[in-house]
# Entry
Amino acid sequence: MAQLRVDAKTNEHKAALEMLGILPIKGKIITGDAMFTQRDVCSEIIKRGGDYILVAKENQPTLVANITAAFAEPEAGLSLAC
# Structure
């Protein structure tokens, strides 16, 4: 792993994007807290061949509702019958 100092003029989100650019994440699962539930972070992980698990807290009700709805409905054309 690596560490990156977060400068006073930036934040962890931007530092995370920089860190993703230098770490070998292909085939790895990246975990993070709710701060990293950002499209650009997720896109970078996928683009570099990784997967992610990010926590969504109850203080983000719209995000939690969107995630719940996405997993509540089966994909179109997907049959669950055996």
Notes: The beta strands are 29-32, 51-54. Residues 27-68 form one domain. The radius of gyration is 16 Å. The chain has a mean pLDDT of 85.
